[in-house]
Amino acid sequence: MTHTRLSLPAVACFAGMAATPGLAGPTYENASGGTFTPYGHLNFAITSFDDGQDDNSQLADNESSSSRLGFRLTQPFGENELTFRFETSIGFAASDEFSQTSDPDDFDWDQENLRHVDLIYRTAQFGTFYAGQGSMASDGVGQFDSSGTGLATSIAIGDVAGGFQLRDTAGALTGIEVGDAFASFDGTRAGRVRYDTPAFSGFTASFAVGENILDDESDDEFYDIAVSYEGSIGSTEVEAGIGYQVRERPGSEDREDTFGSVGVKLPSGLNFAFAAGDRNTAGNYVYAKVGYEADWLNVGSTAVSLDYFSASDSVSNGDDADAFGVAIVQDFDQQNVEAYFGYRDYSYSDTSGTSFQDASSYIVGARWSF
User: Fold this and answer.
1) Count of beta carbons in the 10 Å neighbourhood of residue 186
2) 27-31 CB contacts, 8 Å cutoff, 24+ apart
3) Count of C-beta atoms within a 10 Å radius of residue 110
4) What is the tens place of the pLDDT at every residue in 66-84?
5) What pLDDT, on a 0 to 100 scale, did the predictor assign at position 24?
6) What is the C-alpha separation between 60 and 363, in angstroms, rounded?
7) Is 101 in contact with 164 (CB distance < 8 Å)?
8) pLDDT value of residue 1
9) CA gap 133, 114 in Å, rounded
């Protein structure tokens, strides 16, 4: 059985986005060197999930890089500079919110869509200081990926179909969601204070303390630390990092995550990514990707990749989750558009005696940046 969810307003917006040339956001400058730079992107995709019995398709905002609007207001002070950053997701129905049993509203914005309301003070000698809603120290450290295909397949397996449930071989929904069985770990955004050291030979250490200030029902607190590297070894580009985050949850066991990743890109365009993580309450995983990027077309670069994800003890002790993905992303430089396609297979088993059907998903879409 096939179920398709395509709202007319979303279809019209998607078609317009794909057909409209990209316009670079202007930067406005004042007499003292301050700048105001707006930015944003739209990122709609058709996603489909086959649970072994039913197909479910929908037009959605791709959660791997949700549609958003923002601006940076920067003022220099000698060698230092102060930036105010504002950024919000627009609030379209996200790809990880759909399931066999529920559909999100086409549009639903609330305060939890705020990504950054942030003061950033960069100094020439003493590093960078942050205050406000924004990235904790370890945000992004678990997702380094030089392939150029992250819009279609990435370590964040649940971004495409995270709300869908797996079925058992009798055809019943099991209540086990893709986003839980194939979970990966990374830092978060919160209301926080953060400090980044100056870069030393490409290495930076970061520290942050924060609270979940956008969820009125949450009193969770976060503490994290990360070390990251960005640079070159010869002509090979490397970005890597490792992070540790504690989430204190009143009334529940504190959660401790340790995770890291590395992305490597050779001059030939061949690239590799590797990531791993462990959570004290939810098992561990490893992830690997191999990709290639080349200028096969004169409109922009083409990136292709294969990846593999394996997790254990994510939902229950003794369970195993494996996923295999392929992706292609085509840049259209003049239009500021990235068109993409990704396909993924999922398999899952546990010790309960239940047999699960294999599942699959695909995503096809485009991101227009402005």
Assistant:
1) 20
2) none
3) 8
4) 999 999 999 999 999 999 9
5) 47
6) 10
7) no
8) 66
9) 8
Q: Which residue has the tokens 């995550």?
A: 257
First-residue to last-residue Cα distance in the chain: 39
Query: Phi/psi zone of residue 214: left (φ > 0), alpha (ψ -120 to 50 degrees), beta?
Result: alpha
Query: Residue 233, exposed/middle/buried by CB under 10 A (0-12, 13-18, 19+)?
Result: exposed
The 3-state DSSP class for residue 3 equals: strand
Rounded alpha-carbon distances, angstroms, from residue 290 to 9, 320, 345:
37, 23, 17
pLDDT at 26: 86
DSSP 160: H
Q: What is the pLDDT of residue 139?
A: 98
Residues of the chain below pLDDT 50: 8-24
Q: Report CA-CA distances (Å) from 71 to 40, 118, 335.
A: 8, 11, 21
pLDDT tens, residue by residue, 112-124: 999 999 999 999 9
User: Which residue do the tokens 């398999």 mark?
Assistant: 347
What sign results for the dihedral spanned by CA atoms 311, 317, 320, 321? negative
Residue appearing with tokens 């086959």: 50
Q: Return the DSSP state at 93.
A: P
Identify the H or E element spanning 69. strand 68-77
